[in-house]
Amino acid sequence: MKNSARVLFFLLFCLLPGTAKAGGGYGETGPYRVETFREIWTDAGREREVPVKAYYPVGVKDAPVIVFSHGLGGSRDNYEYLGRHWASHGFVSLHLQHHGSDMAVWKDKPKAERFAALKAAITDINVILDRPDDVSFAMTQVEERVRSGSHPLARVADAGNLAVAGHSFGAFTTMAVAGQNFATPAGRFSFGDPRARAAIAMSPNKPRRDQDFEGVYADIRIPVFHMTGTKDTSPVTPSVKAQDRLVPYRRTSHPETHLLVLEGGDHMVFSGFRWGQLLGRPGPESDQRFHELIRAGSTAFWKAYLQQDAAALNWLANGGYEQALGSDGAYSNKRVEKAKAKNTGQTP
């Protein structure tokens, strides 16, 4: 967005009255009928297949495209509660499947060996490198399919309005594409893709070794919504604590950075998949209340930053979302924090 347009956008959002409707309507199913397609896209340069599943709104033109990255052991079929919801509000939600860290890692393993297989995958350097490359490849494929004029995406998608989202290992992938820097013995490097205009990172990860957090996040120059919970520990890596998930938000300086912390929310509530199921035991149903709040906040965020909807940003950042959360969660954003700090003379 051009600087003048951005200034006007935020002036409008600051002047708008807050909505009194619970959830602002963002947590409710949107007005568009949703259809899907499943394809396998091949990256010839890497000799790698990337299975995809897309949820898209019927009757919409120039819909923003959200590229979604699943968590460790997941697939393109996970997170349907998000993909279908976002599509009903006018977005294309394109869900990737990352070979090497998908459900194939554990599905055919004896139950006693499944966690070991997942741990091995998450430390495999090739798996780590492939994930953000899969996202950038998918963005290029969206552009090519829109240009083709014959693909379903050509009828609905705006290839110039792209975003990225993901959960857990997918949050790592999301932050990498958003511009996070990574330290190596040879120096810093980045997977940042400038085509991404906004990002949502669910259960984001603190850097394992690099303590120069400002340097790690210094090149993130797009709006990012971090989502976590007070019980968001890692099922695979117990050393990862819930408070570690707050580091990316706290250390990011970009003013359009947002944070949701679900009270009592655990790691798997974002996906709806429980580790008891992985081990062959029936798991509890996902918390529908949390899903409603995740859908509402994320949809308002996408509308604000991908559709320049000032009313959505006003609801999200000026009290509407906090009211909808009630005692089930807490919301923060950097712009409001900095404004309050300036007024009180404190450092945010």
Write the layout of secondary structure elements.
Blueprint: H1 3-15, E1 34-43, E2 48-57, E3 63-69, H2 80-88, E4 92-96, H3 114-122, H4 125-148, H5 152-156, E5 157-167, H6 169-178, E6 181-184, E7 187-190, E8 196-202, H7 213-217, E9 224-231, H8 247-251, E10 257-266, H9 275-278, H10 288-306, H11 310-317, H12 320-325, E11 329-333, H13 334-344
Parallel strand pairs: 3-4, 3-5, 5-8, 8-9, 9-10
Antiparallel strand pairs: 1-2, 2-4, 6-7, 10-11
Helix pairs in contact: 1-11, 2-10, 4-6, 10-11
Structure description:
By secondary structure, the chain is α/β, with parallel strands linked by helices. 37% of the residues lie in helices and 23% in strands. It has 13 helices and 11 strands. It has helices at 3-15, 80-88, 114-122, 125-148, 152-156, 169-178, 213-217, 247-251, 275-278, 288-306, 310-317, 320-325, 334-344; strands spanning 34-43, 48-57, 63-69, 92-96, 157-167, 181-184, 187-190, 196-202, 224-231, 257-266, 329-333. Strands 1-2-4-3-5-8-9-10-11 form a 9-stranded mixed β-sheet, sandwiched between helices. Helix 4 (125-148) packs across helix 6. The radius of gyration is 19 Å and the shape is globular. It starts with a helix and ends with a helix. 45% of the residues are buried. The model is unreliable at 1-22 (pLDDT under 50).
